[in-house]
Write a structure and sequence with these properties.
Keywords: Aminotransferase, Pyridoxal phosphate, Transferase. The chain is built from 14 helices and 13 strands. It has 361 residues and is of the alpha/beta class. It binds 4'-deoxy-4'-aminopyridoxal-5'-phosphate.
């Protein structure tokens, strides 16, 4: 790679050929109803807003201490020591730093498919082969099939539970057994971006395996249920050797004062999370009832988005919705185009289903 080129620049310059074939976000103008990026329509929380207002006076200061303090807060939250934590400008950036750390060139990244699309950008940037294993018939990650595809030069196995874009959840006990076994051979990256959309008693993180010293990297984000996507805060939990290797590839000071303060104030805000979870489930039900009526097949979603087969011209529908200022996404999978709709407010979902009906009628 040319000298003086930053990691971010390399990522931006990545060939998007394969990405474009699979994932259509479109170069669309700003939309009024944004159902394309799995954001929380209710965020940021009041706690985050208050913290943001208060921290403004520190905007002239580097966030050295705030970063150290935040890592300590996260470590306490996760029941580990701070050397098990990496904080980044969104979990996507931490995934990229992980890619850079693993010397992927010429090697393989393995995952289910379709999954977090950023993975394919990174596979392209790092010149790795991306081995994609189809979902099962219910659009859920097929862990047996993924395990059977591990090769000698597989350098990273990516799992996502619940998975994006399918929204599907696999029994955490099964995922844990998979991660425990597979991580004896190759490092596993467990993306848990949507875990908080599950009821608290069902939120099983792979952090337990990290605590046992397994070769597992757990990724969490403040972009989803916490409603801070615009501030860019994510973190990893992994054993200290891995954290050291990964953080070497991060920018010097990845997070700003405001982002750190908002994330810190949001962490563990159970009232805000419960409200978001409940409203999300209600609005999601409106959407799945609509899909049921249409007789469309969709992934059983445990998240704030639903992927479905529109039985027709998905891209045409996406474009017509865009003309009405409604943004969604389309995926190419098994030679068909699927749509993914993020769950907005109940009003937004009503506007979406009304517009959809008008478009296809
Ligand atoms: N992982 C998954 C599975 C995602 O869907 C997303 C965002 N769409 C991210 C990670 C990235 O989140 P962020 O970089 O905002 O933390």
């Amino acid at each position: 790679l040319p000298l003086g080129t930053t990691l971010a620049e390399r990522l931006m310059a990545a060939p998007v050929s394969e990405t474009e074939k699979i994932f259509f976000s479109g170069n669309l103008p700003p939309m009024k109803i944004r159902l394309a990026s799995n954001e929380n329509p209710y965020g940021p929380s009041d706690k985050a807003r208050a913290a943001i207002t208060q921290i403004i006076t520190e905007a002239n200061r580097y966030p050295f201490q705030a970063t150290v303090d935040f890592k300590q807060v996260l470590a306490t939250h996760e029941g580990v020591t701070p050397d098990h934590i990496a904080v980044g400008s969104g979990s996507a950036d931490l995934l990229s730093a992980t890619g850079a750390a693993f010397g992927l060139e010429g090697g393989r990244i393995l995952s289910g498919f379709p999954t977090f699309p950023m993975l394919m950008n990174y596979a392209e940037v790092f010149k790795a082969t991306w081995d994609k294993v189809d979902m099962d018939e219910n659009l859920a990650y097929d862990y047996e099939a993924v395990a059977s595809r591990i090769k000698d030069d597989t350098r990273l196995v990516f799992v996502c539970n619940p998975n994006n874009p399918t929204g599907t959840l696999v029994d955490p006990a099964k995922v844990k057994a998979f991660c425990e076994e597979v991580s004896k051979k190759v490092t596993v990256f467990s993306d848990e971006a949507y875990l908080e959309f599950l009821e608290p008693s069902k939120q099983v993180s792979m952090v337990d395996l990290v605590k046992k010293g397994a070769n597992v990297i757990v990724s969490r984000t403040f972009s989803k249920i916490y409603g801070l996507a615009g501030l860019r805060v994510g973190y990893l939990v992994a054993k200290p050797e891995l954290i050291k290797k990964i953080t070497r590839n991060q920018p010097g000071i990845p997070n700003n004062q405001i982002a750190l303060a908002a994330a810190r104030a949001s962490l563990g805000d159970t009232a805000f999370m419960e409200m978001s979870r409940k409203k999300n489930a209600e609005a999601r039900k409106h959407l799945t009832d609509f899909l049921d009526k249409k007789g469309y097949f969709y992934g059983k979603s445990h998240t704030n988005f639903v992927m479905f087969d529109p039985k027709g011209d998905a891209l045409g529908i996406l474009n017509k919705l865009a003309e009405r200022s409604i943004a969604i996404r389309a995926w190419d999978y098994k030679g068909m185009q699927w749509l993914r709709v993020s769950i907005g407010t109940s009003d937004e979902m009503r506007l979406f289903t009304k517009a959809y009906d008008e478009i296809i009628s």
